[in-house]
Amino acid sequence: MARHRNTADEPEAGPWPAVPQQSYRDAMSRVGAAVNVVTTDGPGGRAGFTASAVCSVTDTPPTLLVCLNRGSSVSAAFAGNGVLCVNTLAAEHQPLSALFGGRTPMDERFAAADWTEATTGAPVLVGAVASFDCRVVRTAEVGTHAVLFCEVVGLTQGTVHEGLIYFGRRYHKVHAEQASA
Ligand SMILES: NC(=O)C1=CN([C@@H]2O[C@H](COP(=O)(O)OP(=O)(O)OC[C@H]3O[C@@H](n4cnc5c(N)ncnc54)[C@H](O)[C@@H]3O)[C@@H](O)[C@H]2O)C=CC1
Ligand SMILES: Cc1cc2nc3c(=O)[nH]c(=O)nc-3n(C[C@H](O)[C@H](O)[C@H](O)COP(=O)(O)O)c2cc1C
């Protein structure tokens, strides 16, 4: 019979050995993902970070999840604002991904690109492949991370043809024949 945990809230102590953290990361490095800069603004302050742990949960209502390390410097701002914008990066944004990937002061991160303001007040990256303006409707704490369930309340679809994928600890450009493809 398959062994599994019931829910993240009710972990069972399994008989199987723990997977070493480095082995898990090495395996995950082989899972390609889109690169996003997730932004927020409001009473908790303006903040943004690079995220590959983003995925679509359901289209009814349109909902994304974003996994945010609770130990990161941006964590308090996201908790305080309750809104965010997922900006999916285009190929030209590779340097921006590095800037928003940590250890850079927030003003320097935002100074490196052009932004508009979403309905929620979160910064929208000009030239993103797509931007998803969201309100956070639920948060689950799992290990080191907060899983933010985000209802999409607004969309911006870009016209760029080159997307950005993170795979094998490196960035790769991907080309779509048509922006809407
Ligand atoms: N989900 C996350 O929190 C992610 C964090 N990162 C962070 O960015 C930096 C560079 O990452 P890489 O160059 O890809 O090398 P890496 O060896 O640190 O990570 C390889 C892969 O493991 C996963 N991973 C790494 N740290 C994780 C974490 N704390 N929680 C959940 N999954 C994690 C990601 O899928 C990542 O692409 C590291 O500091 C890493 O922790 C990168 C990707 C995802
Ligand atoms: C390609 C890439 C993907 C990342 N994905 C995530 C992610 O999904 N979740 C996360 O919490 N951190 C992720 N990080 C790390 C955060 O971007 C980083 O910790 C964040 O900028 C906060 O850093 P700070 O504490 O120095 O401000 C990623 C970093 C890179 C370079």
UniProtKB/TrEMBL annotation:
Pfam family, one: Flavin_Reduct
Keywords in alphabetical order: Flavoprotein, FMN, NAD, Oxidoreductase
Keyword NAD (UniProt): yes
Residue ranges occupied by any Flavin reductase like domain in the UniProt entry: 28-173
Region annotation (Disordered) ranges: 1-20
One of the record's GO molecular function terms: oxidoreductase activity
Catalysed reactions, as listed in the record: FMNH2 + NAD(+) = FMN + NADH + 2 H(+)
Keyword hit for Flavoprotein: yes
E.C. numbers: 1.5.1.42
Domain of life, source organism: Bacteria
Family: Belongs to the non-flavoprotein flavin reductase family. RutF subfamily.
Biological function: Catalyzes the reduction of FMN to FMNH2 which is used to reduce pyrimidine by RutA via the Rut pathway.
HAMAP family reported for this sequence: RutF (MF_00833)
Name the UniProt record assigns to this protein: FMN reductase (NADH) RutF
Gene: rutF
